[in-house]
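Bit of a strange request maybe. I'm writing a small parser for structure token strings and I need a real example to test against, not something I typed by hand. Could someone generate the tokens for this chain?
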Amino acid sequence: MEIGLLIFPTDTTMDPVTLGKEVEARGFESLWFPEHSHIPVSRQTPWGGREGAPPLPEEYWRSHEQFTALAAISSVTSKLKLGTGITLLGQRDPIWTAKQAATVDYLSDGRLLFGVGYGWNKEELANHGVRYTDRRARMRECALTVKALWTQDEASFSGEFINLEPSWAWPKPKSKPHPPIIMGGTAGPKTAAAIAEYCDGWMPIGARTLEKGWEEIQRACEVISRDPATIQLGIFGAKPVPQELDDLERRGMARALIALPQGSADEVMAALDQYTPLLDRS
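Reply from user aminoacidic:
Good idea to test on real output. This should exercise your parser:
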């Protein structure tokens, strides 16, 4: 099982380029950046959409644009995989997103891991012209449009939300057939069906819903005659504890991501030093 790291790259914590070099030097497999375009100050939607949630941490509105930050890291690393954890694909323009992601993958020689998710912030989605109730259906169309642009010389898509006439778009990704599309979040029946249809992996936050979610995904794969073994499993927010990581590996996880602190460079470096021995736990 590979071990990766996760952090919001912001203007108040360790700069992402230096961090990328340090993460690769220590032997971690990947570095993942979340995204939010902005956070409306009304704060109508509680953190994660959960009533009674704590106040939203400021890294949610201070983070760098993820593809720009990952591209910068790609220029100073050679092996580190670069993950979007996650891209809020349903509130993005899929045509531009396909080009941004393909460019990062091309310039990094095929190191992009394309994590996607629906998003929970209703007012953020609304500012992008997306109704909360449409986010799943729109993300599906965005994902299929992105895949078409990545893999077809003359790409096209026609749907309820996205319409792309036959078009040329390069560069194509170095990863073949394309960078893996990895769904984040709990897998109920609707998300499981989406994973079975257009994703290459699933990574929930923590292992609490792992078994139930995997059963849903297997059922969804059966409906469309897909082999569930073609879906790679991983975990966001794994605990930096050898016993837990060993348990995740026994349960078939291909990758576990540990969160770095949203602190100063010294705090982040201290955490890196603390987590590095976990790579040699076997």
